[in-house]
């Protein structure tokens, strides 16, 4: 199926004031396309979690989204430290967020857990010191 890009957004490190913009924009775009609200919710949750991970853990990055007739594709690339232990990153409650971030109410250790739970397909390419690339696929039908 051919993908059609619908969103591309740069995300800055530590810019909590803009956290959630990409997920809100994606939600509005998917509504205009007539996508089912349950599917939109899943895509918004995934995008929000990935967006916040870029803000909290990386030096910046970007989020892209595309759709085909059957699927929503969400891609992120960041210039962060990479994920040192993927197995731990998927354990509910495991977090490497700083105390400052936790005091703001973020970094509860559910980001990648939620991404996995609301995705139909999840691919992660990461290495310590190399940044992280993630591809998520959510079936529309």
From TrEMBL:
It holds the Pfam family HATPase_c. It comes from the Bacteria. Residues 43-138 form the Histidine kinase/HSP90-like ATPase domain. Transmembrane segments: none annotated. This is Anti-sigma regulatory factor. It comes from Iocasia fonsfrigidae.
